């Protein structure tokens, strides 16, 4: 007979030790991420089957004003076996633990894929005027674990969040990834389109150098990032945020986070923040200058990060979020084409889901967020 599954508080050290036994986990599920998100109250929790630890999560709490009740958020987690036949018990144990602590809702984002679209399929979809979104194109792969997880969440009363919802999902549901497992540099290059391969050669010929920086290079990254924000009309994060992220993640593991800079004759052409947890590597933030764009600094920096990911034994190079569009009239189509050139795949994740634990408070919070 199986031992009962329970959830209890664990220390950051126990949490990190558990993550090190796993092939990979989202960096949003590392204990260090609590230091980055100081505006949330954070706790580490563990799942136990009897006395054996079988999972862990970083839970971020957003407390309601004047009430000791919180939205409990598990971004890109928890780190459990999502294919487990005891998944319902695992989720119910978390629900009960958080409800006892005063959570009025549980939000989580299972780190499991449901659908995948390869490069050829994406290109065909972009060329077809009848197809405007990924979910209108037939996927190359339907993932059984991911689709089973979605069905189970629905049965348990979870509500799927989408960007159209009142308080929109925090993490992207669609991402672009380059699979690296079992591949060499030559394999990855061969999978890219002709323009990417040509531009990679061009960067070397033009004398573009890519280097790994450190905390002292964050101001240079940030200047480039602010220029990009002004050009692309988004609100940039402050330098202090990146300094806190770098300090917290590198203190937890010196190989966790890196700053990359692509330079030419002393000028920074592009700069990125790169994160790796085990076998999963992320292009987390990127920026480029308007000057010397013909030298392809962004291409050079992406290729170096892919090379370093391969060398570190990563099985996935993740270019993070994409919008659910293949419409040529969409403003994001240029970025999508840039990512498609890597020869990777568009991946739909299970997305973010809410389970109301106190329906009245949940409804009030939803209305409050919609009016903001």
Automatic annotation (TrEMBL):
It comes from the Bacteria. Keywords: Acyltransferase, Cell shape, Cell wall biogenesis/degradation, Peptidoglycan synthesis, Transferase. It holds the Pfam family FemAB. Gene3D superfamilies: 3.40.630.30. SUPFAM superfamilies: Acyl-CoA N-acyltransferases (Nat). InterPro entries: Acyl_CoA_acyltransferase, FEMABX, PG_Glycine_Bridge_Synth. The keyword Flavoprotein does not apply. The keyword Cell wall biogenesis/degradation applies. Belongs to the FemABX family. This is Peptidoglycan bridge formation peptidyltransferase VanK-Sc.
């Amino acid at each position: 007979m199986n031992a009962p599954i329970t959830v209890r508080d664990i220390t950051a050290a126990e949490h990190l030790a558990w993550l090190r036994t796993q092939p990979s986990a989202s960096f949003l599920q590392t204990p260090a991420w609590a230091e980055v998100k100081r505006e949330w109250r954070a706790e580490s929790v563990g799942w136990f089957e009897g006395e054996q630890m079988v999972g862990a999560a970083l839970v971020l709490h957003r407390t309601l004003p004047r009430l000791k009740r919180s939205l409990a958020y598990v971004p890109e987690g928890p780190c459990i076996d999502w294919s487990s036949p005891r998944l319902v018990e695992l989720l119910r144990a978390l629900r009960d633990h958080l409800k006892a602590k005063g959570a009025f809702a549980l939000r989580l984002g299972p780190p499991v894929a449901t659908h995948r679209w390869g490069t050829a399929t994406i290109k065909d979809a972009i060329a077809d005027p009848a197809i405007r979104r990924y979910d209108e194109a037939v996927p190359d792969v339907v993932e059984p674990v991911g689709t089973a997880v979605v069905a189970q969440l629905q049965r348990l009363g979870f509500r799927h969040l989408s960007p159209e919802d009142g308080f929109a999902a925090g993490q992207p549901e669609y991402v672009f990834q380059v699979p690296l497992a079992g591949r060499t540099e030559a394999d990855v290059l061969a999978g890219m389109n002709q323009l990417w391969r040509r531009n990679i050669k061009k960067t070397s010929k033009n004398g573009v150098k890519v280097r790994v920086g450190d905390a002292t290079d964050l101001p240079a990254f940030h200047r480039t990032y602010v220029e990009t924000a002004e050009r692309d009309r988004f609100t940039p994060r402050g330098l202090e945020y990146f300094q806190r992220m770098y300090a917290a993640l590198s203190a937890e593991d010196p190989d966790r986070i890196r700053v990359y800079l692509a330079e030419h004759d002393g000028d920074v052409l592009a700069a990125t923040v790169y994160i790796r947890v085990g076998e999963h590597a992320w292009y987390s933030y990127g920026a480029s200058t308007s000057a010397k764009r013909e030298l392809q600094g962004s291409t050079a920096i992406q290729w170096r990060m892919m090379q370093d990911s391969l060398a570190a034994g990563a099985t996935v190079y993740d270019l993070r979020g994409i919008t659910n569009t293949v419409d040529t009239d969409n403003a994001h189509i240029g970025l999508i084409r840039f990512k498609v050139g890597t020869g990777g795949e568009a991946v739909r994740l299970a997305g973010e889901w809410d389970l109301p634990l106190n329906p009245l408070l949940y409804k009030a919070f939803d209305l409050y967020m919609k009016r903001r």
